[in-house]
Amino acid sequence: MDDQENQGIDCRLAQAIGENADAVAIAEAVASLWLEFEAALRPIVGPAAVTALYRRSLNLASATIPGFNRVSTSSAEGNDVDGLREYLMQCSASDALTSGSSFLRTFHELLASLIGPSLAQRLLCPVPMDPLSDLPPQDVPP
Fold first, then answer.
1. Which residue in 33, 78, 84, 94 has a CA-CA distance of 20 to 30 Å to 43?
2. pLDDT in tens, 15-29
3. What is the pTM of this model?
């Protein structure tokens, strides 16, 4: 995945966290983003595939974040985001941010490898509903 796509994930995470966030706020933001991604994918690929993507993302991310090996995935649906949230809450703010970003980037990379980067980007980082609404009205000539 290219740097622009990683920056998109990092930007979404930064927006969700805000400034001077502690590990709890970071954990909540990562979990919230995951739940958004899950909601976007579940109707398309089904709950079993979302569970598989979640587990695989944790597994792949554990290569750089060994603590992910301890994250519980034993909930009824298998994608125990509470386990990820709990793990991140126990980290320092810096480690929670690094770990959370690693998980989200890994998930995005995995999804992009399966469906292509463009579709993954469209599913996970949708454009605002009315991107032009912030522009001032233009003068109309008489």
1. 84
2. 888 888 899 999 999
3. 0.80
